[in-house]
Write a structure and sequence with these properties.
heterodimer, A: about 240 residues, alpha/beta, Rossmann fold, 4-stranded antiparallel beta sheet, about 40% helix, globular, B: about 550 residues, 2 domains, about 75% helix
Chain lengths: ~240, ~550
């Protein structure tokens, strides 16, 4: 469960990049975070994961504050960043082992999961190669496997499907659904509105640091009183916001 | 021809713009860069040393020895530079891929790359060759013909060196798949260079300390000159160049010049022929496979490869792997210290006994053996250690080396303070090795030192080591260089090294002050106080790090 309470952030004084965001993502929910480039999606995600400080407000992860109880909060998160080029000099298996050590995954469990997940994502055969020899998609896959490896309750994924081949994309989407079905939380950002439409229980639309809408797609359609596609709704909401600002 | 000029222009600009001595914004010299000042220092140091040597040799009527010694050294220097740059220029540089789709033929590409390589060497010659050769002309009162030959030498030398090594590299690259991986190639070259430097150093030092009297010294010089000429014969153009510079007005100079011209022309023809066959047909065709090693599909045994480790061990192991597996980081952070330590061991173990045998006077021997061990000596040893700790950049780049991966520090469930400690372990270990080697060598030279003194020096050095590691990591945390495109930029595009020098100077001054004020008190007491001072300093820094850990890491985003 993720709770964002009155979150604000500014890099320069007086210029808020995140402006008073309130958000509750309940257990068993897949939440899609949408917004144009530079809207504040990654900044929000970085605040949730503890990478960025929060200027105002509070973030709770399963009731643990990321500010006052960061270690416990971080144990409950699995984060896939938008940059898959990580630890290129390590072999795939070494990277997974390192993550398993950091998150204290028991040996028998980690062996089972590494084997199962890497086979599912088609990277089992290259685990003994350095990550630098992987393609972009394979790098993305090893990061995803490393997150699933410690089976965190809350998945926070920044553009997780970018660069994945159709098979892995299918697996990941199924994993997300399965994870939510087991009463866990999935929070992910995406540019692909179709995925959000098909996968998410609720969506949030952010632009210029302000959360413009939170709810189901049906609620969005009802609010706009129009039976149009999510893409058109998205354009309408963000354009109105641009004009108002 | 136009294509060659344009292509060369692009390659050269790419190379010079990446040099840390230039400011990327206005393309002028970056006077804030430490490398700019390093080059200035080298420029003047080479000039000064050359001046002193030439003056001395001219006074004893042996000025030609300078040319005999200097040209092979220049050849070696240029050769090392070509070995390190050649593969990068021809095979691993990213700009090659960017021009491959253009209508450029193989010879045009080869010539452009070759000229780029030459320009790198001309730049180096500007720093280390122009002044010595000019000074030689001035001190020996040579006429203008000498200067013409000197310009010819500066122009033609890099052609010979780069041509020869490029041909060799093409052949190696063609026949060995092993070297087609940039990292394997760089590691091999690094090891090769270390051994070559050490062997040359060993031979030179042994020669130097074989001199037993003034008469021997004179004979030694003549014999060195003979030996050098024999070695120079193998380098083909060295002896003709010596003839050109040593007897500029004689017909021998013209004959030598024609000889050099012939050698270089043949070499360039061979270079183009070999390059056409190997470089273009075999290497460029597989350019993508050079960077991306084909997966060998070794099926892994999960049971063997997956092991449980404590967080501290896992984190530290990761730090070591990332440091040692990256040739660039290894070269910038570990290599200089290892080379220095091996050189010190060689110097002391091989030369020191010879030196002691040479010393006829037993009083010097006895003076060293029975040296009174006072606070000044302790501080001197600690100063040596402090200087050596300042060579390595491991802690100074511990965060910057991670680049964009550094965000992991913030989202994994490990306290920032603990990560601070783990990140310091590689630097601490290397400094510890330095301490052990230096103290071991001191004990070898002065075996009469009491073990208790060595033990206390060891403890103080650990405190100084920790303070160095902590402060340098703090510097990197406050001024990280995370958005680098190439690994070389981690050190080259950062001015953090200045802080290391400042710390070194401050600590040296502190040690000198301690040596002065504790001069008259009992050495044990002085050392204990010194130990307490550094321990308190360390505890204060450690408490500060623990207290402000979140603020310290806030540049990582």
């Amino acid at each position: 469960m993720l709770e964002l309470k009155n979150i604000s952030k500014s890099y320069k004084k007086g210029q808020k990049v995140i402006d008073n965001i309130n958000l509750d993502i309940k257990d068993g929910e897949i939440f899609g975070f949408l917004g144009p480039n530079g809207a504040g999606k990654t900044t929000t995600i970085k605040m949730i994961t503890g990478i960025l400080d929060i200027d105002e407000g509070e973030i709770l992860i399963d009731k643990n504050s990321i500010i006052t109880n960061p270690i416990e909060a971080k144990k409950k998160i699995g984060y896939v960043s938008d940059n898959p080029d990580m630890f290129l000099k390590l072999k795939g298996i070494e990277f997974l082992n390192f993550i398993a050590d950091v998150y204290e995954v028991p040996e028998t469990q980690r062996k089972e999961r590494i084997e199962k997940l890497s086979k599912e994502f088609d990277i089992y055969d290259v685990l003994n190669d350095k990550i630098q020899n992987y393609s972009h998609g394979m790098r993305q896959k090893i990061i995803i496997v490393s997150v699933l490896l410690h089976n965190p309750k809350n998945w926070i994924l920044d553009e997780p499907l970018t660069g994945l081949d159709p098979k892995s994309s299918f697996y990941l989407k199924n994993k997300m659904k399965e994870h939510a079905r087991l009463n866990n939380t999935v929070f992910f950002s995406t540019h692909i509105l179709e995925i959000a439409e098909k996968l998410c229980d609720r969506i949030g639309i952010i632009n210029k640091g302000k959360l413009l809408f939170v709810g189901t797609i049906e609620e969005l359609r009802k609010a706009k009183k129009e039976n149009i596609s999510l893409e058109e709704l998205f354009m309408e909401i963000t354009q109105v916001n641009e004009e108002n600002s | 021809m136009k294509k060659i000029v344009s292509l060369t222009n692009v390659f050269i600009k790419e190379y010079y713009q990446n040099l840390p001595i230039f400011d990327n914004k206005n393309k002028k010299f970056n006077k804030k860069s430490i490398f700019y000042w390093l080059i200035v220092i080298i420029f003047f140091a080479v000039g000064y040393v050359s001046y002193e040597i030439i003056k001395f040799l001219t006074n004893i009527g042996q000025s030609e020895i300078f040319i005999n010694l200097y040209l092979p050294i220049l050849t070696m220097f240029l050769a090392f530079q070509v070995i390190l740059s050649c593969a990068n220029v021809f095979f691993f540089s990213k700009d090659t891929e960017n021009v491959l789709y253009m209508p450029i033929n193989s010879v045009e590409l080869l010539i452009s790359k070759f000229i780029t390589l030459l320009c790198m060497l001309y730049f180096s010659e500007g720093i280390i060759a122009v002044v010595p050769l000019t000074l030689y002309g001035m001190i020996t009162s040579a006429n203008f013909v000498y200067y013409i030959w000197a310009i010819v030498t500066i122009f033609i030398y890099p052609i010979f060196v780069s041509g020869a090594i490029s041909i060799l590299t093409f052949v190696i690259m063609k026949f060995s798949r092993f070297f087609r991986n940039k990292e394997v190639f760089q590691i091999f070259m690094t090891v090769f260079l270390i051994f070559t430097i050490l062997i040359v150093e060993y031979i030179m030092l042994n020669n130097l300390f074989n001199i037993k009297s003034n008469e021997d010294a004179f004979n030694q010089m003549i014999s060195i000159q003979d030996r050098m000429q024999n070695i120079n014969r193998m380098l083909l153009i060295v002896n003709p160049t010596i003839n050109m510079l040593a007897s500029p007005e004689k017909i021998l100079a013209v004959v030598s010049f024609l000889k050099i011209l012939a050698i270089c022309s043949i070499e360039i023809i061979v270079f183009l022929l070999v390059g056409n066959i190997t470089y273009i047909k075999y290497i460029l065709k597989n350019i993508t496979s050079i960077e991306r090693k084909k997966g060998t599909k070794k099926i892994i045994d999960i049971n063997k490869k997956v092991k449980n480790n404590k967080i501290g061990i896992a984190y530290t192991t990761k730090e070591f792997k990332l440091l040692l597996r990256n040739p660039s980081f290894f070269m910038q952070c570990v290599f200089p210290v290892i080379t220095l330590l091996i050189s010190c061991i060689l110097l002391v173990v091989s030369v020191y006994p010879t030196m002691m045998n040479v010393m006829q006077d037993d009083t010097v021997k006895k003076a060293i053996e029975n040296m009174s061990f006072n606070t000044e000596v302790v501080c001197d040893i600690l100063i040596i250690l402090q200087v050596m700790y300042s060579i390595s950049n491991i802690s100074l780049t511990a965060i910057s080396r991670d680049g964009k991966d550094a965000t992991l520090i913030k989202y994994i469930p490990v306290s920032l303070y603990k990560q601070f400690l783990y990140k310091n372990i590689p630097q601490f270990m290397l400094n510890l090795l330095t301490t052990i080697v230096v103290l071991g060598l001191i004990w070898y030279i002065i075996p009469s030192i009491k073990i208790i003194y060595m033990f206390i020096i060891f403890i103080i050095s650990i405190m100084i080591n920790l303070i160095n590691c902590y402060l340098m990591l703090i510097v990197d945390l406050k001024r990280p260089n995370l958005n680098w495109a190439t690994e070389e930029a981690v050190v080259k595009k950062s001015d953090n090294k200045l802080f290391q020098y400042v710390l070194m100077i401050v600590n040296i001054l502190l040690l000198l002050y301690i040596a002065t004020i504790f001069k008259s008190i009992n050495i044990m007491l002085a050392m204990t106080i010194e130990c307490i001072i550094y321990t308190i300093l360390f505890i204060i820094i450690d408490r500060c790090v623990k207290k402000w850990q979140y603020k310290l890491f806030n540049k990582i985003q």
